[in-house]
Amino acid sequence: MELQSKYRTLRDVPQLDYLSPGGSLCAGCGGLLAVRLFHKVLGKNVVWVNAAGCMTIMVNYPLVPLKSNWLYTAFASAPAGAQGIRDALDILIKKGKIPESEDLKVVVVTGDGAAYDIGLQSTSGAIYRNLDFYYLCYDNQAYGNTGFQVSSATPVGSSTATTPATPSQPAGNIQKRKDLFEIWRAHNPPYIATLSSSYAVDFLKKVEKGSGFRGPKLYISLAGCPTGWGYDPRETIREEKLAVDTGIWPLKEAVEGKVRHTVVPRALRPVEEYLATQARYQHLFTPTKRIDVIRQIQNDVNSYWEGVADREGFDIKLVET
Amino acid sequence: MTSTRSMLMTGNLAAAWGARLGRADYIPAYPITPQTEIIETIAKWVRTGEIDAKLVQMESEHSMLTAAGAASLAGARVFTATSSQGLLYALEMLYNIAGWRAPMVLVNVARALAAPITLEPDHNDILAARDSGFLQFHAETCQEVLDLILLAYRVAEDSSVLLPAIVNLDGFYLSFTREKVDLPSEEDAAAFLPDYKPVNPFSASNPVSKGATVLNGALYSYFKYHMHASSLRARDVFEKASAEFERMFGRSYSPVETFMADDAEIVLVISNSFSTIGKQAVKRLRNRGIQAGLIKLRMLRPFPSSLVARYLSGRRGVAVFDQNISLGFGGIIYSEVLTSLYHRRNRPQLILPVIGGLGGKQITIEEMERIFEATKNELGSESPEPLFLMRSEELERTMNLVKTAKEVHS
Ligand code: SF4
User: Fold this and answer.
1) CA dihedral B172, B175, B177, B181 (to 10 degrees)
2) What is the mean pLDDT of chain B?
3) Cβ <8 Å between A80 and B215
4) Left (φ > 0), alpha (ψ -120 to 50) or beta: where does B15 sit?
5) B352 by DSSP, 3-state: which?
6) What's the gap in Å between B217 CA and the centre of ligand 1?
7) Are A204 and A7 in contact (CB under 8 A)?
8) Radius of gyration (Cα) for chain B, nearest Å?
9) Min CA distance, A27 vs chain B (Å)?
10) ipTM attached to this prediction
């Protein structure tokens, strides 16, 4: 039986914040919002282990907005940093050198560049060793910190600074995203989930639920990125919600490997509604509408949900293409 | 001075004993030749309960060093070891760990760098790390390996230093050579090296940020200046710790060791295991009435410039033996010795650059003697010819190998 969650409505979002206001990230950053929400569930006894990315700039000496611990490691090896801290705390507690009250939750926080690309080796190593840690990836689907270049999380059809739409490559990026959720699942960790701050209750519940497991816990949070995606900063929540409602960003979890979708739109909205609002997809609409690319994106979404509906036994209304 | 027991041990085993007597809490590991024996030994001790520590095999040296530094910041005493390509693969993290001010000890078993790939030693690996902020101590003997590890912890953890340290020993020449090593008792080692008291570790009651961003050059310079000043202080801290070490164990370690150098006219500057061959040559030359001497660099970072200058000023000729090559320039230590002497009033007439022993190429006592002769011959010359040590029969043998291979494969 499922444990009763503390989080049932938006009113249950904890007021207490572990991040001071202000800071040097872009206005409307969805990544920062994810970090903020995540922290609310974990409480104050946390050490964040960070790899190079947008959040790195959050802790900007001497202006440190965090009320918890922070370590910037390097682009490739934040999970290894988490390993060192977890192991050290375990040994020191075991030897009685520090009291258990000084124990910390160890949380890796990285962007998609580290999570999907350069840090995959150290991530795989940490999961393999069954490290007891949280991994929060704020996925803005490109290298945002360096000016929005393609990453292996960039979706088909998105233009980036290194995959611009041109007459010879009218779709922008043509590579399919790596499926980080499945890459992790193949390593058999106890808990994996996708998140979007736009579904905050689902978000909080999953962090709470994952906390009940020892071992590696992955959270991939969609991170609306006004600067890279090209929309007004106040629209972040709306963009992230559209991503869920069009079926582009499925909200799901895998407990001990068993996948379940936690938010199932009864009827998907057309992906076009989402794509049309962002500058990174503008080449799909002007000067001529690239129906072929939009249809490909829609077909991918449809076939994903068809499969899920079959496996999990629910009905879903797909978009006609 | 207390009683100790002696054992025959390899340099690698001595390094493992350094971790054991230093009571390391945590050893992240990744295998690489010729370092593996160190970690295998410790792994066995962890399993038999002879050490109360955790050893975890990581998936790369880069991760290994990340875990090492992070664990040190959480308050554990950390030991690990690597070599060659592994050190280079982890190089990014060396800079980070030094910047985190995480006082851990890393043993490097020197091995030349690819390509061509080889297992045998020279010092290009360890010298690639010289600007990282890690303190560097270089061992000549297995005894030194053990003792320098204990000293390295003392210096690294000193609150006026707080920088990580590397202890370097030569692959094969030392890693697999058995020598008699005096083993301090656990009690004495603990008296010399008390438990690690971390400064502001990660904690629930007093959260800290480490490795934070700085978004301007003045702040960055401020941090780097402090690291530099701390590194320079490490020399005094080392000398004090070493004096205490001598009182307890009867062995003394100066940052620079002198050998028959008091009245020497020609002095060889050298480091690591080839120093032993150099010393033999000096003895032979002395027997022939030649005033030869040697100084051995035991501390490479901070560079003991003033000691080097003190020992070398007033000599007629100095030869600097570099077991490394900065391609397109020459020997790395050569330039550091030159720099240390430039402003001295009676700097030596001649400082001869010598490069030898690359990739573990053997050096004979005769070759060492040849260095002294060459130095004498070059006295008075304005631009001395750098000496690349290779014997003619070695060159011949190399050419023959190439020729034979051509014949076999044609
Ligand atoms: S670039 Fe995007 S992800 Fe990065 S801080 Fe700005 S809004 Fe956030």
Assistant:
1) 160
2) 97
3) no
4) alpha
5) strand
6) 23
7) yes
8) 22
9) 18
10) 0.97
pLDDT tier at B369 (50, 70, 90 boundaries)?
very high
The token pair at B42 is 């410790």
CA distance B81 to B37: 10
Mind listing the pLDDT tens digit for each residue in A209-264?
A: 999 999 999 999 999 999 999 999 999 999 999 999 999 999 999 999 999 999 99
Spatial separation of the C-alpha atoms in residues A122 and A124, rounded to whole Å: 5
Distance from CA of A243 to the nearest CA of B (A): 32
SS3 for A135?
strand
d(CA B196, CA B77) in angstroms, rounded, equals 6
- pLDDT at position B172, please? 97
DSSP string, B113-155: PSSSP-SS--SHHHHHTTTSS-EEEE-SSHHHHHHHHHHHHHH
What is the 8-class DSSP label of residue A268? P
CA gap A236, A238 in Å, rounded: 5
Cis before B53? omega within 30 = no
C-alpha distances in Å from residue B381, one per residue of A19, A317, B81, B302, B374: 67, 90, 44, 32, 11
Partners of A48 in the beta sheet?
A: A70, A107
CB neighbourhood size of B328 (10 A): 5
Give the tens place of pLDDT for each residue, B301-338: 999 999 999 999 999 999 999 999 999 999 999 999 99
Among all chains, which residue has been given the structure tokens 């972040």?
A236
CA of residue A110 to ligand 1 center, whole Å: 12
Protein residue whose Cα sits closest to atom 3 of ligand 1: A225
* Rama region for B106: left / alpha / beta (φ>0; ψ in -120 to 50; rest): beta
A270 close to A302: Cβ distance less than 8 angstroms: no
CB B73 within 8 A of CB B207: no
Query: Which residues, in sequence order, are bridge partners of residue A193?
Result: A219, A253
H-state helical runs in B263-391: 275-287, 305-312, 332-341, 365-378
| pLDDT of the residue at A140 | 98
- In chain B, which residues have their Cβ closer than 8 Å to the Cβ of A68? 207
Buried/exposed B389-407: b ≥16 CB within 10 Å, e otherwise:
beeeeeeeeeeeeeeeeee
Residues from chain B contacting residue A24 (CB–CB below 8 Å) = 215
Closest CA to B104 of B83, B133, B141, B124: B133
DSSP state of A143: B
